[in-house]
Amino acid sequence: MRQRRVTGREKGDVLGPSAPVALEVRSGTARTTAGPAWRDRRYVANRTFQVPNLTEFPHTRGLLYFADEGILASMGSPPSRTGASPPGERLDSKGLYQEVAQRLRERIFSHELAPGTWIDEKALAQAFGISRTPMREALKELAGEGLVILTPRRGCKVVQLSTRDIEEVFPVLALLESQCAFEATGKIRPKDLPRLKTLHETLEIHTANKDRGGWLKTDNDFHSVLYEISGNRWLLRVINDLRRVVLLARYYFLVEDGRLEQSLEEHRQIMAAICRQDAAAVRQYVYSHLISCGKAMAELPLPAPPEESAFE
Amino acid sequence: MCPAQATKRQSAPLRPGAPAVEGNIAAKALYEEVAGRLRQSIFSQDLAPGDRIDEQALAQAYGISRTPLREALKLLASEGLVVLKPRHGCYVVQVSRRDVEEVFSVLALLESQCAYEAVEKAKPEDFQRLEILHRKLELCTRKKDRAEWFEINQDFHRALHEVSGNHCMIHLIGNLWKVMKLVRFHSLVQGRQLEQCLEEHSRIMAAIRLRDPAAVKQSMAAHLLSCGSATSEGYLPRHPMENAE
Predict the structure, then answer these.
(1) Residues with Cβ < 8 Å from B64, sequence gap 6 or more?
(2) Counting CB atoms within 10 angstroms of each CB, which of A112, A217, A251, B64 has the fewest?
(3) What is the pTM of this model?
(4) Per the CB < 8 Å rule, is A172 touching B110?
């Protein structure tokens, strides 16, 4: 294992199992990247790190690394969950835009900044009491997560998926994810099962509590852990890019009555098939799960006019 | 002030919600122009896989500052053409054999699904167009004209994409082909006989004539998978893969 001097934002955080990504943590001018081996609990230079999961901190686009055996993603330091700065080192002004990004993220998810809204960078920067640069950085981070789009010379807009986009994306996701799940189930080892079971149990809890945010996060973790086992990094990459695109829409979708329960039921089927290592069944269940999600989502009154495609 | 140019967006990254304006005349951002040029250098192998990109020299050569160059590099990195390694710099992506196999396996999935949907939706004029393209392929095989063969091959696949009409899929397929261009798979597949490629295409065409979507899907997937194994077998990365830093 390579020893590196790396400093993290929060002391004492544990490097937990997560998506096949690594962590780039900034400390002053020192930047370094962790390798794929750092998915399990490891200590480095007397500090341990929280590996951000893909839901909260999907890799910033444009900073994707290829290592010889794995795909590494580089992300900014994870924003503090509570919104307040954690005790310990402040990472110069980078901490500032993280907080701004977090607040914007909240506003977007709460629909305060509705899909399709143009974001007035200047006004917001003034309101937050920050200058343009951290504002831009915050927006770039959100753009990397697929929540906003930065158009040159026109500004920044909250992402908006039309019905047609949903109708196009979900069949593709169904195709790709079902194949990935199929390959993963074929390669699954006994030691992988406990992790998946724990995540599944967390899903049950979130459904009981009707916790949408938690559900989405755990759902993404579950799929990440499963798909990673397939070992097809490119398939994974394409899947993750697409999932990021529909993230915002999915959050809304879960609001529908009984949707969480329905999805949980579908997950139970998937989990059962995984446990008995029935790859074909897993493929079928994942496929129908996503197709049914897509169909139901397409029926939601999505704000964008159906003629615009997000993919041109 | 640079004048607005009516330029077709080259390989736009996945950008949800971007307005689909016909003949978009909004001025292209500087970094996109730069990215376009870099992309061309990479595809033409001026910047070969594994080469380090000298940001400073490039910025000077293009007469721009570091920032738009960095943005351009980030864009290319998101497309999978370059790699940004902290403290090392920016490198043109080195595609490994495993990458080739993986990409072709994903392409097999996507292209075959695309072909399936295309056959379901195709109208008589679409079938005619495919027939014409297939006949051209047969001609090229007889003339042993490789360059032309690949051109028409691309047109054939694109025709199927257009008929299927799923922009998401088309976009993804486009990105993956771009990465494959890095390995100059055209020249690698030199090893393959044109006759064999034609044989696979004939099978696809036969299924299309029968209007059998499932058979088209199956034969398309088989075609891509065998292309993939041919490419990866003939492929030797130029630089030995360094251990990840």
Answers:
(1) B30, B34
(2) A112
(3) 0.69
(4) yes
